[in-house]
Structure formats: structure tokens, C-alpha cells
Amino acid sequence: MSLTQQYLLDTYRARQRGEPGPPAPGSKDWQVMREMRDYRRFRVVVTERPARGRLRAALARRLHLRRPGPSC
User: pLDDT tens for residues 21-60?
Assistant: First the structure.
């Protein structure tokens, strides 16, 4: 059963029972993403790890970024 079919079935059942319908699929995606970001930041603070710059440093190491030097 697809996500859309399940949503329609849940909506039908809610109407039959006089209950409020479920939220549409995807309507809360951005809220969930923000909450996950906030939770990750919270966990970093609780475990006393540095909260910023880790990703940038890891990418720089991975890509071996070099500054252009003199071309002789």
C-alpha cells in the first residue's frame, strides 16, 4: 500500500468515526528537520564536544584543499 493510499484510508476511517483527520503526508517535514538539527546541537553540548567547525575541517582534510602558490 502506498503512502497516499494509507493516508486516504486513514482519512476515511477518521470521518466514519467523527475524529479529526491525520495530517497530510509531508506537511511536517521541515518541522521534523529543525527538531533533529536542534537535538543534534543539544547532544553536542551535553557531551562537551566542540559544536562548530568539525564539518568544515573534515571536508578540508578530505579534499586536501591547497592555497595556490607561486608557479615557478
Answer: 998 888 888 888 999 999 988 887 788 766 566 666 777 7
Residue 42 belongs to domain spanning: 25-58
Residue 41 lies in a domain: yes
d(CA 70, CA 72): 6
Non-local (6+) Cβ contacts of 11 within 8 A are 21, 22
What is the C-alpha to C-alpha distance for residues 29 and 60, in angstroms, rounded to an integer?
A: 31
Number of domains in the chain: 1
